[in-house]
Design a protein that fits this description.
182 residues; alpha+beta; four-stranded antiparallel beta sheet; three-stranded antiparallel beta sheet; 7 strands; 54% helix
Length: 182
């Protein structure tokens, strides 16, 4: 059984950020903590230094707005600059992807790269909004959910993958269990 589609540069990183969140903090939580700390520390220190709570609050709020604008600019520039860097190296921004389930292993073909993981080394299967992520020892195989033509095709594929995983891996993969209804 196999799933075939396209994976764009950066999608694996995006998917893994949310996997890390399951074991710690999500990217959004990190941003909220930073803003709260900027307010909680910046305003009192600014008030102490300037003698004015209002001036300190305005200063910190303007800094937060500047941070937000800076983040937007970085996000807007990152995609085009990554595409240019890849093109200069002769690499495509999107790579063809095939994930095959064989009796012995999970086979991940991404462009010219092939990774093979025997089923005992597949440790987890996570579902996040747009992806399925197979954790394979210390690596990840990311499968966009959009590659499936129907919800039934997705369910069948995940059920088949889950059936080949070890009992311990299935126990660490509640998303797959919930998704297939078993």
């Amino acid at each position: 059984m196999e799933a075939t589609g396209v994976l764009s540069v950066g999608e694996s990183t995006t998917a893994l950020a949310y996997i890390k969140a399951r074991r710690g903090l999500s990217p959004r939580q990190v941003k909220v903590i930073l803003v709260v700390c900027m307010l909680a520390v910046g305003i009192p220190v600014g008030a102490w230094a300037s003698g004015s709570w209002f001036a300190a609050a305005m200063s910190v709020e303007c800094t937060i707005i500047g941070l937000g604008v800076g983040l937007l600019i970085v996000q807007r520039l990152a995609g085009p600059s990554m595409r240019k860097a890849l093109a200069a190296r002769g690499q495509a921004y999107e790579q063809p992807l095939t994930l095959r389930l064989t009796p012995e292993a999970l086979v991940y073909d991404l462009g010219d790269l092939t990774m093979t993981a025997r089923w005992p080394c597949v440790t987890d299967l996570y579902q996040i909004r747009k992806y399925w992520v197979f954790l394979v020892q210390s690596s990840a195989m990311v499968l966009p959910r959009r590659v499936f033509a129907t919800p039934e095709a997705e369910r069948d594929f995940i059920a088949e993958a889950r059936s080949r995983m070890t009992d311990a891996a299935r126990a660490r993969s509640p998303d797959a269990t919930r998704f297939v209804g078993g």
